[in-house]
Amino acid sequence: MVKLLYLDNAATSWPKPEVVYQVHDEVLRRAGNAGRGVNQASLSASRELFRTREVLTHLFNIPESERIIFTKNVTEALNVGLQGLLQTGDHVLISSLEHNAVVRPLEYMKTGGVSYTIVPCTREGFLEVAQLEKYRLPETKMLCCTHASNVLGTIQPLAELGKYCREHNLLFLVDSAQTAGIIPIDVEKINIDFLAFTGHKGLLGPQGTGGYFARSTLNLRPLIYGGTGLHSASLAQPQEWPEGMESGTQNIPGIAALRAGIEYILEQGLISIRAKELHLMELLFTGLRYISGIEILGSKEPAKRVGLVSLHFPQHSADKVASRLDLEYGIITRSGLHCSPLAHRTAGTEQCGALRISLGPLNTAEDVQVILNALATILGEEPN
Length: 384
Prior knowledge:
11 helices, 2 domains, Aspartate Aminotransferase, domain 2
């Protein structure tokens, strides 16, 4: 049997640090539901939520832990930010790299009188501040921007974008799906009003975890209403945070395991994690230059991108190359449009898609050499 080599960390990171598995198993074996009574099991579950919020405040420099809300993924978090902050007549600026988790909610919200404009990025995937001024309208309320594209990998200049938003009284909503746990994010320095994050990628937690930070100055409507454990005699949704924004039973084992992943990151240090990622990316880019028939999408400088690279093969099908990597070599990558047709339109690959290689903190230099060898063999053959 071919040994599995996993290089699809932009979809979900694997493997996780061993402590993540241990904490998930340990908490899953306990009793208790957070906020449901004052018994010791319920209080123990509530403490797991509190502890995870606390480590997130350290990771993102969030001033108030109660402004951190847990969701099942970043898509839900983005929906809360968009549907909870925008109303009829509002206009939104988004980059030409946004994921369908942003575009599809906004398309739906057009029926309610919300409009949006796609601000074109450069072919390499950079959103330039000067471009925002061309598309900003009197009714523009928000800039919604991914920190790094899941297709091009390009890291956006959040500090410049946040400064522009503050100067023009725009809300700044950031999708950190590809950067949280890898690239430092300081919500205070960058002037982020709403930060959406997912737990199962760079934060090294399990699937089914994620959340958002929303500033206390925001009047944010819940996406889901229901039981919270507060004011149960009232038919109205509680206004207190975080409980009023977290209706229903929480994924306590998953959130506790997410905390373990974040603590692992804080122990290793973002500088160390990023340095290893850059080293592997430099090895990958160097090797790709010696293989003919490959076009690298996005910036050719590893320092300007996260640890993923999407490849276009003019003479080969990306889907077929990905399938062969999987079936013949046991290498897991991802091909297609990556739920981001706007990004592929920016790159010029909307009709054919691309093959994405995405590295994680537990990948090695040997892993990089294995996929380089496999690509060289596959692309050296006559195209089908």
